[in-house]
Amino acid sequence: MRILEDARDRPDLFVWYGTAPNLDLQSWQRRRGLKLPCDLLLLWERTGGGDIFETETLIGPAPDPEWADSFDDVNEWYRKSGLPHGFAIFHIGRCLSAIRLSDGKYTILEENSNRILREYETLDEWYEHELRDEYADAYGLSGGTIETDDET
């Protein structure tokens, strides 16, 4: 996973929340009626979500530590602000990123209208095009972009 490779190479840019002890992500999803992509669940298992590149927040499944954004709270706030059912916010920052629950695609939503601006098949593809392309040069991240078959 490219985001974890970057975190290993530049740990100063990634402040992970940490994994929640005894959190079973499968039952956590079931209780919320969610079916999230496996790569997002894997990232959460390893990191718990966190703050990256100083301005970006990957929402995590557990509200710990106290200063972390809670998945439930963030999604409730966006629902009250008009986010349609069928989407789950997982990232806030330079753009608003959500999982479309019907097919597990990573989407970028226009904040005021919730119109889908872009969509991606995988977390790597989303990370590469939405965050890494924006910050790689500024933060001196090594390596080129990930090649994908789909030109989203």
Describe the fold and architecture.
The chain is α+β, with helices and mostly antiparallel strands. The chain has a single domain (2-139), classed as SMI1/KNR4-like. The protein is built from 5 helices and 7 strands. It has helices at residues 2-9, 25-32, 38-47, 71-80, 123-139; strands at residues 14-16, 50-52, 56-58, 87-92, 96-100, 105-109, 116-120. The longest helix is centred in the C-terminal third of the chain and has 17 residues, at 123-139.
Which descriptors would you attach to this protein?
single chain; 152 residues; alpha+beta; SMI1/KNR4-like; seven-stranded antiparallel beta sheet; 35% helix; disordered C terminus
Furnish the topology, listing elements before pairings:
Blueprint: H1 2-9, E1 14-16, H2 25-32, H3 38-47, E2 50-52, E3 56-58, H4 71-80, E4 87-92, E5 96-100, E6 105-109, E7 116-120, H5 123-139
Antiparallel strand pairs: 1-2, 2-3, 3-4, 4-5, 5-6, 6-7
Give the name of the CATH architecture: 3-Layer(aba) Sandwich
Proportion of beta-strand residues: 15-25%
CATH class bucket: Alpha Beta
CATH superfamily: SMI1/KNR4-like
Largest beta sheet, briefly?
7 strands, antiparallel
Query: Any idea what the radius of gyration is?
Result: 15 Å
Question: How would you spell out the order of helices and strands?
Answer: HEHHEEHEEEEH
Number of strands: 7
Q: Write down the domain tally.
A: 1
Q: List the uncertain runs.
A: 145-152
The rough form would be described as globular
Compact description:
The chain is α+β, with helices and mostly antiparallel strands. Helix content is 35%, strand content 20%.
